[in-house]
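Hi,

I'm pasting everything inline rather than attaching a file, because the server keeps stripping attachments. The sequence lines come first, and each chain or strand is labelled.
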Amino acid sequence: MIDWLYATIPVLKVVHIAALLMWCGGLLALPLMLAGTGPAVTAEHYLLIRRATHVTYTICVTPAAVITVIAGTWLIFLREAFVPWLFAKLAFVALLVMVHAWIGHILAKTGEEPGKDNPPHPLLPVTAVLLPVTVILTLVLAKPAFDWIEFPRWLLEPRGGQLPFEIPSR
Ligand code: HEM
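And the predicted assembly:
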């Protein structure tokens, strides 16, 4: 029964990588799209950018982030990747999630209070995205050994513990 689960690893990896491309690409594109709004643009142009950024964020970028995390979490258990580089990677994924929320906040503010508060220069959010993404890709592709850090054993191996409740048997 578990064999077919292991057979899904390549599919999950493809889904993980396709979704993270959409997630990270979208996070880079959104601040650049928003840079098109300014005091000089017409109301019609503003509405167009506002709609495009809203749809991109809610229909593409956020679902892609959720799919990346779900596929990645399955991969942790199927690949038994209880390894220090993964924990370091997860810390930077958390940072990327915060940047994701910040960009969402900028989009919402620009939409709700047009002309009141200009969005930050796109270089700022783009750098904030590129920083964790570069570190994550370095960690995941180089899979560096962190032997010099003493990790507790419980963090590095499945515990095989019992759940605090009975699991119904079919
Ligand atoms: C909560 C979020 C994430 C989790 C739990 C997660 C977990 C994983 C796991 C367990 C693998 C398999 C590693 C292996 O087979 O040795 C993997 C592969 C990969 N992840 Fe993630 N990941 C997450 C987010 C990301 C993000 C945001 C990026 C890039 C910005 C990323 C880039 C990659 C790449 C490129 C691979 C393929 C590496 C390879 O097969 O050598 N991941 N991920």
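Residues 2-156 form one domain.

If the labels don't parse on your end, tell me and I'll reformat.
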